[in-house]
Write a structure and sequence with these properties.
The protein is an alpha+beta fold. It has six helices and eleven strands. The mean pLDDT is 88.
Length: 241
């Protein structure tokens, strides 16, 4: 029997060969590579690919989607390199394929985020921090512009990595909780009023956020909310273009 892997998957071919319970040899060709599987008594007995034999060969070829195959009857295996049942092999193979797809999905997502980071205007971020220091003067205790992906700081003044990571998680939790409670989502910023007249302002802007700790005994809430925060929001939008 001969055919294309576009018509029958590798998994289908293995099941077919095992269910016939006859000695046979399955040859698979994909992108210039050739794998060989031997069957006997309803099980996979031996597998060969390049210089590798055994179970790992089966796991590799299960991902082959294009190519050709041929199934030869009455062929005895040259050796026994597999003792695991064919059903167990296919289950393990399917599990590995799922993990590979998930890892690829996460890798693609990370690449998209890293691409945005690489195109973020670092000079503009530095200008945002400098402008904030000028507007708030001694009232600005610390500020960080950080990634929403992992809370990693990208620019700032008196940077606080632990605080950036913490407020990144708080933002994530707030978004999730508000959504779960059917509340409107977070707006342009949120405030956390601390003891001794300190205040934290967090400004989420998609893949990035800015957080700052301000001493309200050295500035007014009006200057903070009506001067500093609008400048930051506009600056972050420009930096992300």
């Amino acid at each position: 029997m001969k055919g294309s892997l576009g018509d029958l998957s590798v998994s289908d071919l293995i099941q077919l060969a095992c269910q016939e319970r006859k000695s046979s040899k399955l040859i698979l060709e994909c992108n210039g590579r050739q794998a060989e599987l031997w069957f006997a008594n309803g099980e996979i007995i031996h597998a060969f690919l390049d210089d590798q034999t055994g179970e790992e060969v089966v796991y590799q070829i299960l991902s082959w989607e294009k190519g050709n195959f041929s199934l030869e009857a009455s062929v005895e295996p040259p050796e026994v390199s597999i003792k695991r049942s064919w059903s167990s092999l296919l289950l393990e193979g399917a599990h590995r394929l799922d993990e590979e797809k998930m890892n690829q999905k996460n890798f693609t997502k990370d690449k998209k985020i890293n691409k945005k980071e690489s195109h973020m205007n670092v000079k503009k971020m530095e200008e945002i921090v400098a402008g904030l220091q000028e507007d708030l003067s001694g009232a600005l205790v610390a500020t960080d512009i950080y990634s929403s992906k992992d809370g990693q700081s990208l620019a700032g003044f008196n940077t606080q990595p632990k605080a950036s990571a913490l407020f990144n998680e708080i933002t994530r939790y707030l978004n999730k909780s508000l959504k779960g409670s059917n509340f409107p989502g977070l707006g342009s910023y949120y405030l956390v009023h601390l003891e001794n007249n300190f205040i934290v302002v967090v400004i989420p802007q998609g893949d990035f956020q800015e957080g700052m700790l301000v001493d309200l005994s050295k500035t007014s809430l009006g200057i903070l909310m009506n001067v500093a925060v609008p400048k930051i929001i506009e600056g972050l939008k420009e930096a992300l273009k």
